[in-house]
Specification:
Number of helices: 4
Strand content: 15-25%
Shape: elongated
Number of strands: 3
Largest sheet: 3 strands, antiparallel
Radius of gyration: 21 Å
């Protein structure tokens, strides 16, 4: 890991709704790396970067230049994250069963109806009254 974190130029730091294990909000920021401005999600707990993310994070926070999300931006970001979570469930849990004719045909009509209901309920998650702050995730069929 490089100790050149204090020489990295940055611009437009903005908090996100995502928090690390210690409760720090991740910062979306543009970093000048190798002469190019690159979008970077700065997590102080990130150990995979080739620079000291925690020190750069602390520097940016201490300079007081991080902008907070508006309530509307926060809701939009959280909505996007929850939709991605829903899409992952569809892709990894539902699609391997309902798009595979052999697996689908082996299920009883009752089980097929459970999977159809689960898929429909996942697709309807964004229409729940508390979305995106409160979500009741449907139960996956056995």
């Amino acid at each position: 890991m490089s100790n050149n974190w204090n020489k990295i130029e940055y611009k437009d730091p903005k908090y996100t709704v995502i928090k690390d294990a210690k409760g720090n909000k991740v910062i979306n920021v543009y970093l000048k790396l190798k002469g190019e401005w690159v979008h970077f999600s700065l997590n102080p707990e990130d150990k995979g970067a080739n620079f000291d993310t925690a020190s750069l994070y602390n520097k940016i926070v201490s300079e007081g230049k991080v902008v907070s999300l508006t309530a509307e931006e926060e809701k939009t970001e959280l909505s996007n994250i929850e939709r991605i979570s829903r899409d992952i469930k569809l892709e990894l849990e539902v699609d391997p069963i309902v798009t595979n004719p052999l697996r689908w045909e082996d299920l009883s009509t009752s089980k097929q109806n459970e999977w159809k209901a689960y898929r429909t309920a996942l697709l309807a998650v964004p229409q729940q009254s508390g979305f995106p702050n409160t979500i009741t995730w449907p139960t996956k069929p056995e």
